[in-house]
Write a structure and sequence with these properties.
The complex is a heterodimer.
Chain A: E1 2-3, H1 5-9, E2 14-17, H2 22-34, E3 41-45, H3 52-62, H4 67-73, H5 77-84, E4 85-89, H6 101-110, E5 113-116, H7 127-147, E6 152-156, E7 167-169, H8 185-204, H9 206-222, H10 229-259, H11 264-279, E8 285-290, E9 292-294, H12 311-318, E10 324-326, E11 335-337, H13 338-354, E12 360-363, H14 373-391, H15 395-400, E13 407-409, H16 417-434, H17 441-477, E14 480-482, E15 491-492, H18 506-521, H19 523-527, H20 554-557
Parallel strand pairs in A: 1-15, 2-3, 2-5, 3-4, 5-6, 6-8, 7-14, 8-12, 9-11, 10-13
Chain B: E1 7-11, H1 12-15, H2 21-30, H3 35-55, H4 61-69, H5 76-89, H6 97-108, E2 112-120, H7 121-131, E3 136-140, E4 142-145, E5 148-153, H8 163-173, E6 182-185, H9 191-196, E7 199-203, H10 207-216, E8 220-221
Parallel strand pairs in B: 1-2, 1-6, 2-3, 6-7, 7-8
Antiparallel strand pairs in B: 4-5
Classes of the chains: A alpha/beta, B alpha/beta.
């Protein structure tokens, strides 16, 4: 049966979590742009060191995703947003999401749909943080949804909850771990909490404290100081905290790998899906799993991207002299533009409000418009070629580096990042310790400078190596095709809300949209030590009380 | 009774552009990913040069087939990007203004402008905006399997000796009056093309065509720019 997304959302009140993230912001801006009759949108936010109001103002006034809204409404944007959006202070890691009681009661009465886009997208985090964000947080949102009068819920997860399963991944919630072990989600949740307690206890154990103390005492003595109680205990405390973060990260990763997930992120996201399903059988809810969310193909504007993303490091690597990208030719890398994912959220959201939803909706491209890792590597090489030919700063870049094509290759290739890093390390060591003693002092100085440069390069190579290792399950180890058909069960009247990955022209998208987008919005901060470009509207957005106050005078605002 | 339509056929290589397929294939070969691949494909292209030298004035089909073998395993993405580069950096500069003038005049005279080229579609389609007056392009097409070129040209191959046969079919399909149509070409294998129209003209002809043009009393034009 077909429906109109606009009609389904008309007058409906939505609670949005994760509204400040990449997907959440695009959802919010698209809702405000394409659904003019939507009811009220409640955006749950943390202040992050400032008031929620200040953070919201900063986001709307500086984040480029809001550009279409500023351009469309100009001075009227403040009133437009005040009429439709209410920012709610809260955090997912506490029951009731720490929402003030009176506000929570009001929301329970009004909200029709909860869109939960929140989550920690760090592959290898401290397991406490992962549990708090991805598991406790999801349960708190579901608890809240269940306590509402008439709210349905859409939980945004990830296709990669499939873990290390190979082949065709269907749109269902599995009841086994990827390694085939039957999994009781409740028991596993408890096990994770036990792991956290055990790891904390281990970090506080006498043995650990003694080992750290001995290490600190030895270090202090080596530096020629007296190992006083004060000096030692402070350092031991800091080392203990640092060690705890490291072992917590390892503990999560170890458990994830034991069960067949490649990292803590996908493991905790999978558990959240299972727990929501088992704990809330009567809650109208669905799961939307995006694959690798990347630059917008069209909305809010072509190429929009922000933050850390999966293809960024690969594309960046392809632009350097390191041309061997560890990737298995023929393996799909399931890239999906953020605006297509958001389309999927709107359609799935409408379906769940109507009670016609499926258990899971996957929004990926591998099933309908496969982009293989080798094609992606070549497109990245060609994109860098085009870019360097135009903008290379010297002939080495315009003539040589531009033609230094990246290729998908075996991780064990002789010229892999690890081997190159080892060579750089040996060069640095030779320049410091292996050079002849009797050389002029200027040469010594020069050698020292070169060694410093080599050290820097080595650190950067190590970072790249770590990122590549994180992505290996997706680029090399596993062949996964994510089914993406459930959304097709809902015929949508408006073409702009349809999920149609088959319409993507990958070459055009990669070269004209995604790569320029990454260069503009992501690389400056991630790799170039620069600030990300911010948007400056002609008329700044100001907070009004429910649209009651007048719009600001554009002249004054300027 | 309305007057039937006419066309002006331009063989691109030698008439509109100075450069031929060998240069294009060599450029593509030299821009493959990886040194080994570049050397191998460049070598393959070089093999085609003597074939064109020996047989080029009679039938260029074999030369074309060998030259395009060097495209084997190149992806459609790379061909598209390199073709764009080749047109912008090299081919655009090789356009012969005198040829453009001829085309402009033919257009003014009411002819349908048909450009026939041995070049591959990815390159020639990119060149079209620079040639301006073209109504139709007939050129060679690479065969692709799984997004990779097989190194084979799809039939019919432009540049062979059967251009005249093809032309008659084309004229029938488009209801063209060949007797009042014109053709400009410069290679021996274009003899049938030129002899099929009422107003042929040899442009910068090679030895075979020059001889034939003299015997048939066709006009001969020479220009280098």
């Amino acid at each position: 049966m077909s429906f109109s997304v606009k009609s389904e959302y008309a007058g409906k009140h939505i609670l949005l979590t994760g509204g400040t993230g990449f997907v959440g912001k695009v959802w919010l801006v698209m809702a405000l742009t394409r659904l003019p009759d939507i009811g009220r949108i409640y955006v749950l936010m943390r202040g992050k060191g400032r008031s929620v109001k200040d953070r919201w103002l900063k986001i709307v006034n500086e984040n480029p995703a809001f550009r279409p809204l500023h351009e469309k409404h100009g001075a009227g944007l403040s009133k437009f947003i005040a009429d439709r959006v209410e920012v709610i202070q809260g955090t997912l890691d506490s029951p009731n999401m720490s929402i003030e009681d009176s506000v929570a009661d009001r929301l329970r009465d009004k909200v029709d749909l909860i869109v939960n886009c929140a989550g920690l997208v760090d592959f290898n985090p401290d397991v406490r943080v992962a549990v708090s964000s991805n598991l406790d947080g999801s349960m708190h949102v579901a608890d809240f949804a269940a306590s509402c009068k008439n709210a349905a819920m859409i939980h945004v997860s990830t296709c990669y909850v499939a873990g290390t399963r190979d082949g065709f991944i269907s749109e269902t919630i599995a009841d086994t771990a990827p390694n085939g072990t039957p999994l009781d989600a409740e028991a596993e949740y408890k096990r994770l909490q036990e792991i956290i307690v055990e790891t904390e206890a281990e970090n506080e154990s006498e043995e650990t404290v003694k080992a750290l103390t001995d290490e600190v005492v030895a270090r202090v003595k080596k530096r020629g100081y007296e190992p006083t109680e004060k000096r030692v205990s402070g350092t031991v405390g800091r080392l203990k905290a640092k060690r705890l973060r490291e072992v917590m990260s390892l503990a999560g990763m170890d458990r994830a790998k034991e069960l067949g997930w490649p990292n803590t992120y996908t493991y905790t996201k999978a558990l959240a899906e299972m727990l929501t399903k088992s704990r809330y059988p009567n809650l109208r809810h669905t799961v939307l799993r995006p694959a690798i969310v990347e630059s917008a193909v069209d909305f809010p504007f072509p190429g929009w991207n922000e933050g850390f993303n999966t293809s960024g490091p690969l594309i960046y690597l392809a632009s350097t002299w390191l041309r061997h990208i560890p990737a298995k030719p023929g393996n799909p890398l399931d890239i999906i533009p953020v605006d297509l994912v958001v389309n999927g959220i709107f359609v799935a959201g409408a379906a769940v409000m109507r009670g016609e939803h499926e258990e899971v909706y996957q929004t990926g491209s591998s099933d309908r418009a496969t982009l293989t890792i080798d094609r992606l590597t070549e497109l990245s090489a060609l994109g860098n070629r085009q870019h360097l030919r135009k903008t290379g700063v010297n002939r080495v870049e315009t003539l040589l580096l531009s033609r230094w094509d990246a290729v998908a290759s075996d991780p064990e290739h002789m010229l892999n990042v690890s081997n190159i890093r080892e060579v750089v390390f040996q060069v640095s060591r030779y320049l410091r310790h292996g050079r002849p003693e009797k050389i002029p002092s200027e040469w010594k100085e020069e050698a020292e400078n070169m060694a410093k440069t080599a050290d820097k390069a080595q650190r950067k190579l190590r970072q790249i190596e770590e990122v590549l290792e994180l992505f290996m399950p997706f680029t090399y180890d596993h062949y996964m095709v994510f089914e993406a058909r459930a959304l097709d069960k809902h015929q949508v009247d408006e073409p702009e809300f349809r999920f149609r990955p088959e319409d993507i022209n990958w070459r055009k998208y990669w070269l004209e949209c995604h790569m320029p987008g990454l260069r503009r919005w992501c690389f400056p901060k991630q790799y170039e030590n620069k600030e990300t470009e911010i948007y400056t509207p002609k008329v700044p957005f100001v907070m009004l009380e429910d649209g009651a106050a007048a719009a600001p005078n554009p002249q004054e605002a300027r | 009774m309305s007057e039937s339509k006419t066309a002006a056929f331009f063989r691109a290589e030698g008439t509109l552009i100075k450069s031929g397929v060998l240069q294009a294939a060599a450029y593509m070969a030299s821009q493959r990913a990886g040194m080994r691949e570049r050397l191998l494909r460049f070598g393959q292209t070089a093999l085609a040069a003597p074939i064109f030298g020996v047989l080029g004035q009679n039938d260029r089909t074999l030369g074309n087939r060998i030259a395009h073998l060097s495209y084997r395993d190149i992806t459609d993405d790379r061909v598209a990007i390199l073709a764009e580069e080749y047109v912008e950096d090299i081919l655009k500069e090789k356009i012969l203004d005198s040829g453009l003038e001829l085309m402009k005049q033919a257009k003014k005279d009411g002819h349908r402008i048909v450009v026939i080229s041995e070049g591959i579609s990815e390159i020639m389609e990119g060149l079209l905006p620079h040639l301006r007056h073209v109504d139709e392009l007939i050129c060679n097409r690479l065969e692709y399997k799984d997004r990779k070129a097989t190194g084979t040209l799809l039939d019919p191959i432009v540049g062979g000796y059967d251009g005249g046969t093809w032309l008659k079919e084309y004229a029938r399909k488009h209801e063209l009056d060949l007797e009042r149509s014109v053709a400009f070409a410069g290679h021996g294998p274009d003899l049938l093309l030129l002899s099929s129209v009422g107003k042929p003209c040899a442009v910068n002809p090679d030895f075979t065509l020059r001889k034939a043009a003299k015997e048939a009393d066709w006009p001969v034009m020479e220009y280098t720019a």
